[in-house]
Amino acid sequence: MSSRIHYTKPSITELEVSYATDAARNGWGERCYEYIGRFEQLFCDHLNVKYAIATSSCTGAMHMGLAALGIGPGDEVILADTNWIASAAPVTYLGAKPVFVDVLPDTWCIDPEKAEAAITPDTKAIIAVHLYGNLCDMDALLAIGERHGIPVVEDAAEAIGSVWHGKRAGSMGAFGVFSFHGTKTMTTGEGGMFVTQDDTLYDKVLTLSNHGRAKGQTKQFWPDMLGYKYKMSNIQAAIGCAQMERIDDLIAAKRRVFEYYYSGLSGLPVLMNPEPDACRNGFWMPTFVVNKEISFNRAALLDSFKSDQIDGRVFFWPLSMLPMFDAKPENEVSYALYDHAINLPSYHELTEVEMDRVIELVKASVSMSKETSDAD
Ligand SMILES: *Cc1c(COP(=O)(O)O)cnc(C)c1O
């Protein structure tokens, strides 16, 4: 019986264990914020941004960032239809409406032209989500934002390690948010980060993140406004510090996994995560999309994975297919992608022997699909 291949798991060494142990043993009293401060600084240095605020999740970081932009009831926020719900849910928490537009067929990220066409007088932000590590066209989106006076913000939860023309994902928009959920390239168990270069936004989110208590407020237990409670603990931040010290290795490991799959699947009629000129992809999740002319049987491949103890992961459904939103089948690319695509297992320590098992099953499945459609 072959061993189980998980689709992701964190890379944890003695360094993470020793920092977390130290935080649990000594990180209290006047030292209760020590690892948090260090983690935020290491993150700023890595991303080359001015400010970072550690949070309990990426969802919370996005919620506070959108609130700091003043988004509220009646407002609209544009984002891609192909997405995880965590990018859209915070929009609804504020009483605003997510407006789903189609994605580009090669990056699976928001189509800038469709985003611009969806702008109305109620549009208050565009969320650029760098899906699976693939980069949104930030030049086009920032130019659109500039033209219409609308902030572009980045959900870089899946894009640590991705670089757009010398700038790291998450560092280009009005603000950026990250996730350190256990499935992500780097983890703190659960956790997130808000980053920005903007002094005013930073002050607002800092206040919001502390139950509305303003930085200079000297009166104890005196919130100046209603805020939120989305803080990261010192123990989580300790793990984060260790992961940041190893960040280059963590990203390199993801790239190694992608590259092995990429060469193993070459020659098949599939598209994988792109890496355009002057960009670097962090390859959080190696993904392949079967050409749409081919009648790919996604369920059959997932079944064959399952019988060989391999975790497969379905590509994101269009959010507009979910029961809480209005359907938007006119987002043709999003609606054609999801059942022709699969995310492959990609944890850092995955071996070539394990990846070969995955590659063989994908090859068998895709070439079988091809014959089916040739016979049509
Ligand atoms: C994982 C993820 C999130 C949510 O992160 P949490 O830390 O679980 O809140 C948000 N956006 C994207 C694109 C993600 O992949």
Judging by the overall fold, what is the CATH architecture of the largest domain? 3-Layer(aba) Sandwich
Q: Superfamily at the CATH H level of the largest domain?
A: Type I PLP-dependent aspartate aminotransferase-like (Major domain)
How many structural domains can be distinguished in the coordinates?
2
- Tell the overall outline: globular
Strand order, biggest sheet? 1-9-8-5-4-2-3
Percentage of helical residues?
25-40%
Radius of gyration: 21 Å
- CATH overall fold name of the largest domain: Aspartate Aminotransferase, domain 2
- The share of residues in extended strands comes to 5-15%
Catalogue the ligands.
pyridoxal-5'-phosphate
Number of helices: 12
| Element string (H = helix, E = strand) | HHEHEHEHEHEEEEEHHHEEEHEHEH
What's the CATH C level of the largest domain?
Answer: Alpha Beta
Structural class: alpha/beta
Protein architecture, described:
- Helix 2 runs parallel beside helix 8 (234-245).
- This protein folds into two domains: 14-101 and 108-245, Aspartate Aminotransferase, domain 2 (3-Layer(aba) Sandwich); 247-375, Aspartate Aminotransferase, domain 1, CATH 3.90.1150.10.
- The protein has helices at residues 14-26, 34-47, 58-68, 89-93, 112-117, 138-148, 199-208, 234-245, 247-264, 298-307, 332-337, 352-375, and strands at residues 51-55, 76-80, 97-101, 123-129, 152-155, 163-164, 167-168, 176-179, 192-196, 270-272, 279-280, 287-290, 313-314, 341-343.
- By secondary structure, the protein is of the alpha/beta class.
- The longest helix has 24 residues, at 352-375.
- The strands form three sheets. A seven-stranded mixed beta sheet has the order 1-9-8-5-4-2-3, sandwiched between helices. A four-stranded antiparallel beta sheet has the order 10-12-14-13, with no helix packed on it. Strands 7-6-11 form a three-stranded antiparallel beta sheet, with no helix packed on it.
- The chain is globular.
- The protein contains twelve helices and 14 strands.
- The mean pLDDT is 96.
- The protein binds pyridoxal-5'-phosphate.
- Pyridoxal-5'-phosphate binds next to helix 3.
